[in-house]
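U., I forgot to send this yesterday:
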Amino acid sequence: MLVQAILVAISVFICVGGAELAGLTMLNRPIVIGSVVGLLLGDLNTGILIGASLEAVFMGIVNIGGAQAAEPGIATAVGVAFAIMVGGGAKVALTLAIPIGILGLQIKNLLYIFLVGFFAPVFDKLAARGEEHKIVTLHFGLWAVNWFLYSLVAFFGILLGSNAVQALLNSIPTFILNGLTICGNLLPAVGMAMLLKLLWNNKICVFFFLGFILVAYLKLPLVALAALGTIAAIVIGSNDYDKSQLAKAGVGQSIQSADSTDSEEDDFFDE
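Result:
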């Protein structure tokens, strides 16, 4: 159990911490960290499947400023780890992911406030003195300490919580587990609904209905649907680019014609 807890903590440190260090590279997305945890725990297939399911849940969640909901990285790491170690598959991960993600976000904010925020005046003083080397050292040092402490949440959660989770699952009646499975299957739909609420536009809604028809009636696989979406995006982008070039050319011609008219008027009055 200790080895699994260490591996999950390493996954959180690299994926969640690395995503913030390298400029929001999306390493902390469920599809990525789920695959990494599955690979390290020896069940890559389960990691990918659960990561994809949780990606559909969390894809509509965007944490910006004070509008924050859950942290998908640690939720996926712990959920996938529990699902692999105690069994139960996606229904266990989907059931645990939301509360773990909410708890993880609160701990993340506390670390930002009381650890990183504490050193903000130090950065100001170093910047005023022009000590660039110390700023860089403090920056990377704080990053390492912050995400090491954050990774300990996953470490102790796996180390101390797996037996409790296993006992809890064994004590839950079958009909409740079936209900949790149904609710878990509904969560991706909730994630898609949240995403559509952010992106919905009357001008592009036709593509949503087109995709629904292609999948529901023509039974196209997701790979083919993604390829068609890519082609449509390229065609629309090309048309928009052509229109912008024409618009710029039209503006340039109108400016030139206006300048020529002004010069002719000046020549007339000079005569």
